[in-house]
Design a protein that fits this description.
The chain is mainly alpha-helical. It is about 75% helix and about 0% strand. It has 2 domains: about 55 residues, no CATH class; about 130 residues, no CATH class. The chain is globular. It has 8 helices and no strands. The two termini are about 35 Å apart. May be involved in the proteolytic processing of a quorum sensing system signal molecule precursor.
């Protein structure tokens, strides 16, 4: 229901922003779209962290979420088709799954193997675009891949520095989630088009 009211709220806020000025339709639409994105993200964030608080998972959710976002920043990947779908998926990914994963114990060798697999997949498959945001520029794709690898190296280094087993697992889990989001198999299973820049 909230998702149906977001455009109306965004329109009201945008009208308030331009209250004392005349503005053309295109500029109004651009600002309104930006306000909508902001409202959706705020609502999603509140929902995710409220669910985390109810399960006593604030710190665990934050660790998974930050790890995921740092790797995702330049590697991109799949998006939900609706804001409601995005919110539900986010709660599952950052609250429900970490709730069960947090108690997992990994040996040193398992951590090394998982880290290597994550890094390999990031190096091969990032950045992954979407139908709405195809990455046509080859130079930009190369730069994004390089930054994705650097970000992943940074996160994996933290895994080996952090002494607590729980946080090692949660950091790796956040990276693994993003690896799934850029993998061609995930696109195929969800019947989404992969390498959209090839479809000019």
């Amino acid at each position: 229901m909230f998702s149906l009211t977001v455009p109306n709220m965004a329109a009201k806020i945008t009208r308030t922003i331009f209250r004392d000025r005349e503005v053309d339709e295109d500029r109004f639409a651009i600002v309104k779209y930006g306000v909508e994105i902001f409202l959706v993200n705020v609502t999603k964030g509140i929902t995710v962290y409220l669910a985390a608080a109810l399960l006593g998972m604030i710190w665990q959710t934050l660790v998974v979420h930050l790890s995921y976002l740092i790797v995702r920043r330049h590697s991109f990947g799949l998006h939900a088709k609706t804001s409601l779908g995005c919110t539900i998926t986010s709660v599952v990914m950052f609250v429900v799954l970490p709730y069960f994963v947090r108690g997992v114990q990994l040996s040193g060798w398992m951590i090394v193997i998982i880290s290597a697999l994550i890094l390999l997949n990031i190096a091969i498959f990032s950045p992954s675009d979407t139908e709405n945001m195809p990455l046509f520029n080859a130079q930009k794709r190369h730069a994004l891949r390089r930054k994705s690898i650097i970000n992943t190296f940074f996160i994996i280094a933290i895994v080996f520095i952090v002494p607590m087993q729980t946080y090692k697992v949660l950091i790796l889990f956040g990276c693994l989630l993003q690896t799934i989001m850029i993998h061609p198999l995930s696109y195929k299973l969800l019947m989404r088009r992969y390498n959209n820049y090839e479809n000019v």
